[in-house]
Amino acid sequence: MEQHFMQETNQESNAEITARVEKSIQKKFHQTLWSKFAKAVITYELIQPEDKIAVCISGGKDSLLMAKLFQEMKRHDKFPFELVFLTMDPGYSEENRNMIERNVAALSIPLTIFETNIFNSVYHVQKNACYLCARMRRGHLYKQAQDLGCNKIALGHHFDDVIETNLMSMLYGGQIRTMMPKLHSDNFPGMEIIRPMYLIREKEIIRWRDENDLHFLQCACRFTDTSTPEGNSSKRQEIKKLIAELKKINPQIEMNIFRSMENVDLNAVIKMKYAHQEYHFLDFYNQ
Predict the structure, then answer these.
(1) Do residues 78 and 48 lie in contact, with contact meaning Cβ atoms separated by under 8 Å?
(2) Between the CA of residue 242 and those of 138, 168, 253, 259, what are the distances in Å?
(3) pTM as predicted
């Protein structure tokens, strides 16, 4: 079942909220949000003429800000591209579903929403339920975006997500692996993931949210069934705390983690993989 939600009621009130939010992006948060968004798009060549992009909205602060930044970019009209604002309902509670609908109406985001039963499918899974849920959600988003004629899906991962993923890969995964600004899909030929929030700091997203008195979903998982993050002891939360502690010693720690993925010296790597091929430093040592 597919539904379309547009701004229908409280026209004046929603129009005022939209105007305030858009003005804040254009003025107060121009440097920290809009400029960083535009820089990522240009630096990593995330958008091409004639792209049709599914802007994936989870209902949280990151994805809804991303939607507004895409709308701002569309208004600049530098080259033709299309946007579809897409939400998958994996089995949200009525309260959480209603919150998403109210927010997109207030922000003048024309949302397309489709339903799945993913939460029910993974509810009784004992091991790696979060990983399985994430994979299933990504697959459904790819399929729906492809059915709508899109060639890219945009996700709202930001700078802090990137550096946290870097550390998680090293400390918990035993590998050096970063969250890429764009990525070809292995299972959906012709589809790409793009991450245009790549250079935006989470603290600036929070400032924008609070400045505009906006209230978004923070956790809508069926396992917690809550809109608050309390009690979340995930590995990502552990990494957030670790980075915060390291920052007390070195204020540059966050940028150094980020830049480390841009400054990999292959002459000082014991083993590496490229294009599914594995290489060892001994392969080249005596050449």
Answers:
(1) no
(2) 28, 11, 11, 18
(3) 0.88
Q: What is the pLDDT of residue 228?
A: 40
Residue-wise pLDDT tens digits, 252-273: 999 999 999 999 999 999 999 9
Q: Residue 238 falls within a domain, yes or no? A: no
- Could you tell me if residue 178 is inside a domain? yes
CB 154 within 8 A of CB 196: yes
What pLDDT digit, counting tens, does each position of 133-145 carry? 777 888 889 999 9
* CATH number (domain holding residue 14): 3.40.50.620
The range of the structural domain enclosing residue 96 comes to: 2-232
What's the CA angle centered on 78, arms 76 and 82, to 5 degrees? 85
**Beta-bridge partner residues of 51:** none
Residue 243 located in a structural domain: no
Q: Is residue 189 part of a domain?
A: yes
Q: What is the number of structural domains in the chain?
A: 1
